[in-house]
Each structure stands twice: as structure tokens, then as C-alpha cells.
Design goal:
Structural class: mainly alpha
Largest sheet: 3 strands, mixed
Strand content: 5-15%
Radius of gyration: 21 Å
Low-confidence stretches: none
Number of domains: 3
Order of helices and strands: HEHHEEHHHHHHEEEH
Oligomer: single chain
Mean pLDDT: 88
Number of helices: 10
């Protein structure tokens, strides 16, 4: 329980969020914003609860102008089943939110209008988070599902293409000026991911050198990893384990 409560000590309030909350309070329109943030908070806490249960360390909880974002250290370095459960537990909090909103309305803690706004926010957040756009839950779930069929780098390129395509489609077909901060944030995250991809890949390789977390082995003739397996590489006419292959790749400078 102490570890779970520790998540609340790692909350980071963004300046842009503070400005928007201040304007909402001054204009008297803070109730819909707080209902939206409440629903988004429960969603992210779902990720945190499962991370706590699986002993995966949480870095911090960011409060963004449009919701929350829980940063979990090296999520792709843990067993893929653990990542799946952590990612899935966020959307599953949709049911918890329905129950909490019902209780608040039943005991007159919120008005009927706020209750309806909460239900709408709950559905919107669920659908939005299941879009295959980085770094949303839908992007991670798609990556997990496809990971047995694509090598790590190829999968990341496929998912990045789908992420960019989904973001462009969303902006074109469902553009709302009120969501412009969301669009800019997601666009920034795509650029950030592209710039830092080699760093992420290097970190992934190093993690595979230091520990074995998968029992099922896969004979691999490609110059890359299949994430949900313990890879045995047939490289340069000899068999290599993951550590030996990683050393070979690192010598070549990740080309």
C-alpha cells in the first residue's frame, strides 16, 4: 500500500495545466474540467495499481491540460505479459468510473448535468486512449499483439506509420479547435519518439543482455530481436545467444 500511495507523491503539474485550471476557476467553468480530470485520473491510476501489483516502478504522474499521463520506467523491458496487464488495466477502469459516477450522482454529490458530462468524458477517454497513436494505450496494445510476428525495429516502424496516419486522420476528420493542445502534444510526441528511437533501441538491447525473462526460444536469422522470445541467432554462420548478438550489434554502432 505504501508503494501505491507513493505514486501520489510523484505528481507533476504542468504549467500549461495550471494556467487552464486557473482560467476555468475564474470563469466559473471549472466543474466540467474537474469531472474530466477525475475520470482521466482514475484511468491512469488503473495503470499504476497494476504496475504496483507486478512490482514495476512508476516514475511520475504528469497532469496535462487534457488529462494525466503515468510514466512507467522501462515498460518494454519487463515481460510482455506484465506490460499487457498494465496497459489493459487503464481502459478497464472505464467500469470503475461508471460505478463512481453513479454513486456520486445517487448521493447528490454531483448534479445530473455533471453526471452526464462525466459519462460522456468516460466514453471519450476510453475511445481516445484505444487509438493506435503513440503514446496512447491503443498504440502499446497493438505493439504487444503484433510483437510475435515482427522484429523489434520493424514493428516500431510499422506502429509509428500507423500512429502518424491515425493522428492525421483524427485531425482531418474530427478536428475541434478546443482539442488543438491535444493535437500539438501528440504531434510533439511523434517527433520526440523519432528523434530518440536509437536511444530506446540501445536501451532495449542492453536490457536483453542483462536478463532472461522468456522461456520460449526462437531461432532467429534476422539482425534484430523478436521481443516475446528468447532469441537464438544464426548470425555469420554461427549460433549466438542474445548477449553475444547484442555485443556484435553494439560493435557495429547500431547501423
Amino acid at each position: 500500500m505504501k508503494k501505491l500511495l507513493n505514486i501520489l507523491t510523484k505528481i507533476e503539474l504542468k504549467t500549461s495545466t495550471l494556467i487552464i485550471i486557473t482560467f476555468a476557476i475564474l470563469s466559473g467553468r471549472y466543474r466540467p474540467l474537474f469531472i474530466h480530470l477525475f475520470v482521466a485520473f482514475i484511468h491512469e491510476i488503473g495503470h499504476g495499481i497494476m504496475a504496483y501489483l507486478l512490482n514495476v516502478r512508476v516514475s511520475r504522474l504528469n497532469i496535462l491540460p487534457f488529462g494525466f499521463y503515468l510514466e512507467i520506467d522501462d515498460l518494454e523491458h519487463v515481460h510482455i505479459l506484465k506490460e499487457f496487464l498494465i496497459v489493459l488495466f487503464g481502459p478497464l477502469m472505464y467500469i470503475v468510473n461508471l460505478y463512481l459516477l453513479h454513486l456520486m450522482f445517487r448521493y447528490d454529490l454531483i448534479s445530473y448535468l455533471l453526471y452526464q458530462q462525466g459519462l460522456e468524458a468516460n466514453i471519450v477517454i476510453l475511445i481516445f486512449n484505444l487509438l493506435p497513436i503513440y503514446p496512447l494505450d491503443g498504440h502499446r496494445l497493438l505493439s504487444i499483439i503484433l510483437s510475435p510476428f515482427f522484429t523489434y525495429k520493424k514493428l516500431k516502424k510499422v506502429n509509428l506509420f500507423l500512429s502518424l496516419l491515425s493522428l492525421i486522420t483524427m485531425v482531418i476528420l474530427a478536428f475541434r479547435s478546443a482539442n488543438i493542445i491535444v493535437y500539438f502534444y501528440l504531434a510533439y510526441m511523434q517527433i520526440y519518439y523519432i528523434i530518440h528511437f536509437k536511444e530506446y533501441y540501445l536501451s532495449f538491447i542492453v536490457s536483453r543482455m542483462n536478463k532472461k525473462i522468456y522461456k520460449k526460444t526462437k531461432l532467429n536469422t534476422k539482425k534484430d530481436y523478436y521481443r516475446p522470445f528468447q532469441n537464438v541467432f544464426l548470425y555469420k554462420r554461427k549460433l549466438m545467444d542474445e548477449k553475444e548478438f547484442a555485443m556484435e550489434i553494439l560493435k557495429q554502432g547500431l547501423k
